[in-house]
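Fig. S4 source data, part A: sequence.
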Amino acid sequence: MPKFNPKHSLAQLGEPYSLPCSPTRVSAPQWLAFNPELAEQLQIPEVFWGTDTGLGLFSGNQLPDWAKPVAHAYAGHQFGNFVPQLGDGRALLLAELEDVNGQLFDLQLKGAGQTPFSRRGDGRAPLGPVLREYLVSEAMHALGVPTTRALAAVLTGDWVQRETAEPGAIITRVAKSHIRIGSFQYLAARGDTVKLKTFADYVIARHYPACADSDTPYLALLEAIVAAQAALIAQWMSLGFIHGVMNTDNMSITGETIDYGPCAFMDSFNPAQVYSFIDTQGRYAWGNQPKIGSWNLARFAETLLPLISENAERAVELATQALQQFNMLNETEFRRLMGIKLGITEPVATDEPLIRDYLTLMVKNSADFTLAFRLLSQSVTDSSAGAAGLFADNNGWQDWAIRWHKRLAEQGVSTADIALQMNKVNPALIPRNHQIAKALEHAASDGDLSLFNRLHKALKTPFELSAETADLAQPPTAEQCIGNTFCGT
């Protein structure tokens, strides 16, 4: 079995990949949340589990000797505009921890104070965004989506100024990596091919070791990351999730969901839905996410061209071929996921019209995305039950349901088994915007964490519904709808 033996491979690369930086002390840290299951997986000594010693670690006030904090350097396209230097402006990588399965994970404080990359920012995080990221990232994990995870959250005792003064907080998050597409852009913008190659070799060795065996390892790296991102975005889409700020500096090279800012799960289905207050042009709308993912990967491919081939034209040709795989991979995975959500065990290309027509029916009837799939299991045997109640256009629903039932019958599987499997992939519970907003309001106004804790507990089992959690599955009323979300930077 592995033992607790923190590593610092990124820090050991030195500049320009990261810069040493210590957290800024906070005045009166208090516990908000702690994740003992994750701590156990990471083999973190119990002395840090919800204790004063742990509070010293997760507030940044008293780091143990094994923590070697660094701020990671990266660039990025923000809403299509390239910024050659961004970097961790309020986050510090403390160490890399080996879990019980031998997998290495980053341990990072977010909101720990100014770094060399803060760009006049305060390096802090308000309470609301910290609790939002804690809830949503852990919910995504429970839903089976690759994601950063939340290990701890602490109140700092200090105020941070945004639109108004807000309580400050720090989240400790865990990921296979916090390296982004923007990490490569940062090195490419400096024009240092030697440093770029060193970094690419590091990423291959740590995250994609099979690529090292390829005759073209850097092309293989591009292909692997294209595949990871294609699958991830298909999962987002299948759950009605909108990341909200798919800048290249927010896209992980490991295919994990990272940087939960103005993210949201849709209520009424609308492919053009946007929640982020700053996304006024709808660049990162639900339906645009595959296109933006492909665009981001093209920017990544540009950084690798000198490594893929010394012949510039050949490098572009090979990279283009790799990028062209994205749409096929993404569409195939989306079809598979959506087909399974409809009760189709092995979806094929001929199922696409059935999937597309159900989504169209949902749009026309403003059906709730999550309920339109969750209640569908009740419609397997009775087309007048379950999801039928979401569609004012009863004729449209019945016409679709006839085709759907015919497709299900072709499988030779019992309706009971189909319904059971559908409830295993269609969540009853998601982090609903109006419930999150209420939980954050209670926490910020009077320190009441009861709704936050209730949501956190319920969202650990998103495919199970009980009398105690039934109210959490309900969509918002017209008065409760949340129109905008904010990143809190």
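Fig. S4 source data, part B ends here. The mean pLDDT is 96.
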